[in-house]
Predict the structure of Yip1 domain-containing protein.
Amino acid sequence: MLLSHAFGLFTHPDDEWISIRKEHAPPRRLYVAYVLVLAAIAPVCAYISTAHFGWTVGNDRLIKLTEISAMQLSVLTYLAMLVGVFALGYAINWMAKTYGAVEEHVPSNGIALASYSCTPLFLAGFALLYPVPWFNAIVFLVAACYGAWLMYDGLPIVMGIEKERAVMYGGALLTVALVILVSTRVGSVLIWNMGFGPVFTN
């Protein structure tokens, strides 16, 4: 089962990457059985915390979103995550030849590498149930660092390249990931201006 890889990536990542490479799960199956499930954690937890728990900044009053606004923002976040993982997987496959990766008849390795590298970020979504901004920031920062390390660790194994090339390949992919992140932030501002911005309760 694809979800079993999530635990293995924290306990024995090298063995898990070897297993993932041999598995060659089709991108569609990987998306449905893994990404669609785990990517939903953060939006669902964010909806619950922002619409029902609320949060405070300093000694200010409790802040909550309306249920409709929280739902809209959660759905948009979920879609952005799905697009981001796909875009990163596409970039991995697109740059594969440049860094001497072993060619595959089915280009599933790039999507697999992106999906499984994002596992810590997916699971960090549980932290949103405790809506304290500094706590959430720390958890997601640690998750992002571990996800970046997972990608660097998995590149030589999954893509079949030398470890020396994995450093430059990984650096290029982190740059792409940052571009994707900035694009989603800009997209958020544009979407908010179209009437989907946060609506707070009185």
In short: Residues 63 and 202 are 9 Å apart (CA to CA). The chain has one domain: 23-55+63-192. Residues 23-55+63-192 form one domain. The two ends are 46 Å apart (CA to CA).
